[in-house]
Design brief:
alpha/beta; 10-stranded mixed beta sheet; about 15% strand; Thiolase_CS; EC 2.3.1.16; lipid metabolism; mitochondrion
């Protein structure tokens, strides 16, 4: 599936502008997607804070502060009585050591009862997908009726530790009783003990940073630098247009304490010219790599939250659900050579399981960690060899570009690791309503060689 960059850029532009709402009434639920004996589980609505580049608007906020904004925004959006919520789950990746269960602290800060349990999950970039599906599982099992799923990441203030040797000395110091013992420990300190440990950015099992993996993946699938730059520029153009048209209605404005202004929009959207993008040097594989700062996602702060319940409970409460959560699955593969191929595996398997074909899907949302990663996954799905020998399925085919990430993605909007999954679900749902369509599939890759695929169906009552 080699693609001419200029022709594809033109396709992109058509895709961005072609998603106008239609006048036909919403269709009813697709009963074939509901498993026998299963419950109609719905997402009532989803919100998020504006996603901001790390070190900017939220630089003084702790993760539970950001997550609290998302919970408060959800409460306001759906007129949610706090006491109706049975359970809260939030995803995060780099945990703040003072609030290891960030969901609990955010819930208490947002005014939920101390009797409402809350837990935090982590699965790298699909952590808030895990939060959503954990809620779905609890509701499907009959444990709870109303749950909140969300996620948060604050890259502006990551935990930096003392070195391991220094930590050991500090722990030993708590047991030192005499002055001599304390002086002996003090004398054993060396300069190397003072070197801090930053959070790991490389894969633990391979030692390779994700950007380097993305570069190798792009090369393996023949994704050119121009294709990556075109795709990244398309993401920024789409996000800019969606922002200008007021389509990103999942955003709830926030005013950080001590800040002088209300933050109401994502601040990482930058539409560069092809010439500007072409000037950038490779960021990982030097000097001949193709991944640059312009075609990779950036460090981002932000939080998200969504309300999950049964269709029956939503009607009882007078809520107008936006979507059914019809199916989901997680995949895992070789973290070295297939680290970022989770979407290809997940899409192939979720389509097979639901019996859907490419033409049955109206909206596609794929997480954009790197432009090369998305394009490699698209080529993998359209490859006879790869689908047969690796995914072990028939070729899926070429996904229609004009249905993919039409409001931008992680390359432009940003990627707070723990919050992106809910953002993907919100975009899938809101695009279905705006475009008057029925079925969405979202997919994402994650560190460790994992991935997620989800099928979302528009609810007949859904409105923006």
């Amino acid at each position: 599936m080699m693609i001419n960059g200029a022709k594809w850029a033109a396709k992109y532009a058509r895709g961005i502008h072609s998603a106008a709402p239609l006048a036909s009434p919403p269709r009813g639920a697709n009963k074939g997607l509901l498993k026998p004996g299963g419950k109609n589980i719905v997402m009532v609505d989803a919100v998020r804070t504006p996603f901001c580049m790390s070190g900017t608007e939220y630089s003084k906020q702790m993760p539970h502060d950001l997550a609290r904004y998302a919970l408060l925004g959800l409460i306001d959006r759906v007129n949610l009585p706090r006491d109706i919520v049975d359970y809260i789950i939030m995803g995060t990746v780099i945990q703040e050591v003072k609030t290891s269960n960030v969901a609990r602290e955010a819930a208490l800060g947002a005014g939920f009862s101390d009797k409402t349990p809350a837990s935090t999950v982590t699965m790298a970039c699909i952590s808030s997908n895990q939060a959503i599906t954990s809620c779905v599982g609890l509701i499907a099992a009959g444990v709870y009726d109303v749950c909140i799923a969300g996620g948060v990441e604050t890259m502006s203030d990551v935990p930096i530790r003392h070195s391991r040797k220094m930590r050991q000395l500090m722990l030993q110091s708590t047991k030192a009783k005499t002055l001599g013992q304390k002086l002996g420990l003090l004398a054993s300190i060396r300069m190397g003990h003072l070197v801090p440990e930053l959070p790991g950015i490389a894969e633990f099992s391979t030692g390779e940073v994700m950007g380097h993996s993305a570069d190798r993946l792009a090369a393996a699938f023949g994704v050119t630098r121009q294709e990556q730059d075109d795709f990244a520029r398309r993401s920024h153009l789409a996000a800019q247009k969606a922002t200008e048209q007021g389509l990103l209605r999942d955003i709830v404005p926030v005013k950080p304490p001590g800040g002088k202004k209300i933050v109401s929009a994502d601040n990482g959207i930058r539409v560069s010219t092809p010439e500007q993008m072409a000037k950038l040097k490779p960021a990982f594989v030097k000097p001949h790599g193709s991944v640059t700062a312009a075609n990779a996602s950036f460090l981002t702060d932000g939080a998200s939250a969504c309300l999950i319940t049964t269709e029956e409970k939503a009607k009882e409460m007078g809520w107008k659900p936006k979507a059914y959560i019809r199916d989901f699955l997680y995949v895992s593969q070789d973290p070295k050579d297939e680290l970022l191929l989770g979407p290809a595996y997940a899409i192939a398997r979720i389509l097979e399981r639901t019996g859907l074909g490419i033409n049955d899907v109206d909206v596609w949302e794929i997480h954009e960690a790197f432009a090369g990663q998305v394009l490699a996954n698209l080529k993998a799905l359209d490859s006879d060899y790869f689908t047969k020998n690796h995914i072990k399925s028939a070729k899926i085919g070429a996904l229609p570009i004009d249905k993919l990430n039409n409001w931008g993605g992680s390359l432009s909007i940003g990627h707070p690791f723990g919050a992106t999954g809910v953002r993907l679900a919100a975009h899938s749902t809101n695009r279905l309503i705006h475009e008057d369509k029925q079925i969405a599939v979202l997919a994402a890759c994650a560190a460790g060689g994992q991935g997620v695929g989800m099928v979302i169906e528009r609810h007949p009552d859904g409105k923006l």
